[in-house]
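Repro case for the chain-ordering regression, as requested:
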Amino acid sequence: MRAAPSPEEIRRRNLAVLLRHVHRDGPVSRTVLAERMGVNRSTILALTADLAAAGLVSEELPGQTGKAGRPSLVVRPESDRVYVIALDVGADRLAAATVGLGGAILARTEKARTTGAFDPDEVRATLAAMTRALIARAAPGSVCVGAGVAFCGMVRQEDGVVRYGPNIGWAEVPFGADMTRELDLGVPVLVGNNANLGALAERERGVGAGLADLIYLHGDVGIGGGIIMGGELIGGEGGYGGEVGHMVVSPGGRACACGSRGCLEAEAGELALIEAAERTDPPGRAAVEAIVDAAARGDVTARDALHHVGDQLGSGVANLVNIFNPSMVVFGGVLREIYLASAAQVRSRVALDGLRAVRERVRLRTSALGGDSTLIGAAELAFAAVLTDPLQTLARNVHADS
Amino acid sequence: MRAAPSPEEIRRRNLAVLLRHVHRDGPVSRTVLAERMGVNRSTILALTADLAAAGLVSEELPGQTGKAGRPSLVVRPESDRVYVIALDVGADRLAAATVGLGGAILARTEKARTTGAFDPDEVRATLAAMTRALIARAAPGSVCVGAGVAFCGMVRQEDGVVRYGPNIGWAEVPFGADMTRELDLGVPVLVGNNANLGALAERERGVGAGLADLIYLHGDVGIGGGIIMGGELIGGEGGYGGEVGHMVVSPGGRACACGSRGCLEAEAGELALIEAAERTDPPGRAAVEAIVDAAARGDVTARDALHHVGDQLGSGVANLVNIFNPSMVVFGGVLREIYLASAAQVRSRVALDGLRAVRERVRLRTSALGGDSTLIGAAELAFAAVLTDPLQTLARNVHADS
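-- result from build under test --
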């Protein structure tokens, strides 16, 4: 039997719960917090005072509410003062951002990349330079409380080792440890699979808010999947579940970087679209947008390319709908643009191959976080420590900064 | 806040926990029960006495232990006295069994079926006749405490309505309610998807005992999937997840009963195998066994048919391995025979299409419950009530019988 938690343990847990509410939902009144947490207002008062003294939240009078009586103070996250570093290693770009408590992107920078093998040392140096430039622009007195990376491949959770990133030619790269050393922020740099992080971001603050059964598909050169079932991310035995980009949708089809043929990402990723559109652009969001624009202007080759890729994407989605019975499939990264330009093909394929009882309820949606669901997911990974033990984590990092 | 449980509630829960241990593990000593449950021996003594008085367990001296001192009495389930009815509606057979507490099949009967549309009334009448014959053979004074059906299609959990059974031509059949009325046992007849139940059975008492991340594939005319991730069955929004048989592995391929083409079950189910082997047998286990026998005797057509079907099956398995990163894939129903005769093809396809980090750890295994994992799963469904509240459930059913 475990002993009952001490009053100090209870206080620490409640501080974390309150901060998570404010972080996820933004400014919220003391009254509403008391209701949601099931504690009385004096407890909220004490918790808020502690968090405010640490500089994690502030309190202010709400706007006009139209209600009589003394208004309940609103608690808001100190977005400018407490932030994390969020990094995104895609097969066609590197991105970096500072993200404030509450989830707002404070500053953001991005470098497009051509594909092929990426040199890990160079990626690390580039991300470090981007990070240092962002930190230099952070508000005076602000505190970095964590760092997270969304990576386009298979990552071992425990230590941030990249097991396999076929589209950038990596295998067994100790990226988490390397980035921690390189950035030297006093916090570990956590690494996660980009689509898994995108799924969590869409469920926390995107189009899938609050859904228990959600599939997020992230496209760039590759296609990754983040699958949430019964409220939990599916990891499988080693945590590598969700590699839907390597589901074969066209046996014997286009060669895939993984060594197989006809994988979903080989048939519906950027390279397939660019080739079908008979273009020579380097892969990347710009290339996809150019093809979508051309199709909208009446370019038949571009339109047919989008329809072909949409049909392949639809085959993959239909399989996933039959396998998972999700309530929503979210298209993110360049799949957002591809889906919007080929929704009829995707939906038609789902109607043909999907079983009625599962397809009749599923909603197909585009990411509500624009191109940044993976980056926001990386920020959430980085915020995990402060949202688990706010005061300890903050004290550690304020100390590290001084 | 919820009030602390009363001593009576605690006793009822502990009775259920003890009975579940004995049901799952078979005869077990009081000492071991005390250790596993984390309670003292006098509590075990009292709980065992209550369960024994109700006729759910008995106690006996163990065999020679070689240890000094008074041996701990062994508690065993009253398998002959407390049983459930387990039914299995496959696309190629109807099966029925009485299964005793502890999971042993007491008596079993089966009727092979040719495929095509099944008349729900006739299925109901046939299963009812099989059930009555089994009950007539049950031990005098024994008690039926539940009934469960494993069904080869999509079933709504709450009310046992068959939403869709493509291979037997059913849609929206209120099978649970109909069977409850027909059998009139004083207990509801619960209905579940056969592959989901098979997965649970293999995890509880089969080759996947204790695994958290397991995929069970059940083959007859169709192929169903039961997917356990993080210890929980994947249901998705409506509980219809796991329809891996309708994952397209050969676009534009063989017509499937669902209306699509090239589905895994159309390419690797019984009908595909029989056709590839150039036979005219009606589908069923006998037909598959005849083809496997012929191949073993050197029949090249039979062997090539098995290899072809194995390759298709391997494609589906590779996709599932990439999507889920399971620690084990279990082949049940006729997929057991098909896998054993084409393991090289299945493994070769998984090696080609599976990503290294996920395929290197996955174990491919055949069902440890022979052809009966779905039937045993149906029994587990039926046992759920008595394993949740043993004395109440038993009292209700003894009363109903008298």
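Ordering looks correct now. Chain B has a mean pLDDT of 92.
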